[in-house]
Amino acid sequence: MKTLVVYPSKELLYVASTLGGEVVALVFNEGEAEAIKGKAHRVVVANVDARLPDAVAEAAAKVAQGVDVVLLPSTKNGKTVGGLLAQRIGAELIVDATSLRVEGGALKAERYVFGNKAVATVEVPLPAVATVPPGRFQGEPPAVQTSVEKLQLDTAPKTRIVSVEEKARGAVKLEEAEIIVSVGRGFKKKEDLQMAFELAKVLGGQVGCSRPIAADLKWLPEEHWVGLSGKKVKPKLYLAVGISGQPQHIAGILESRIIAAINNDPSAPIFQNADYGVVEDLYKIVPILINKISKLKGQ
Fold first, then answer.
1. Which family does the entry's similarity section mention (predicted)?
2. d(CA 127, CA 67)
3. What is the signed CA dihedral for 224, 226, 231, 235, rounded to 10 degrees?
4. Does domain 174-297 have CATH number 3.40.50.1220?
5. Does the N terminus or the C terminus of the chain have fewer Cβ atoms within 10 A?
6. Does the CA dihedral 16-49-62-42 come out positive or negative?
7. Exposure of 152 in the CB half-sphere (CA atoms within 13 A)
8. Nearest of 179, 192, 191, 180 to residue 281 by alpha carbon
């Protein structure tokens, strides 16, 4: 049994170790190789730009010879490389696997379907490629002896990066947040989102948003976007403020321990998935919540 991990993280290396056998990691600079020494049996350093999916897929295809399973993160680049690699090595691709095991010459996995409302069990023959969403597996990869080697690719990549523009980013890690205050179209203007940030601050949480706020209105960066095409989160408390609760959004929050909603429309779909709901104008109740919670915390 041999597993290749592309764009390796501690979580992916742990998942690879649970499959048994040899773990090989593909990295793209010496610093990455040094960071995972002792967590993979072999580390291969490829001389390609990690931002170019076709170049990464070509490098991974060379390293994947004789490999049974290839694991990648469920990021935009990870999924793109996964598709390209699966095509190149003639393997099946499983996206967003929430559990993985090898049995009887096949990779068996579970993944959410139908907007996270059902779990599908998938079985594909080896070799296989799978992407894993962050935060699904908890554990430490076992300590092992590591050998490091270099991979030199002679062919030029089919694509190149012409320019890079910095995108506005905040210190947002919604996947790790225990409390999320999420905003939707119930907010009338961008400046009003400050109320949500103040509420998140007194609660000790972070701010998320529905698709229209990030994708259409662009009031917040994509890092705040929660939903099927955004971040899938599982906080202890998810507070949806002014969010109607369309299926695409609900798919990203179903694993929350508690879902609470504030909406002035009693028929809003969000209430069907909420543990607690308040039918009220957010402009009335959010300032009250900020005031009450601040007093309770002595802020």
1. Belongs to the ETF alpha-subunit/FixB family.
2. 7
3. 100
4. yes
5. C
6. negative
7. 1
8. 192
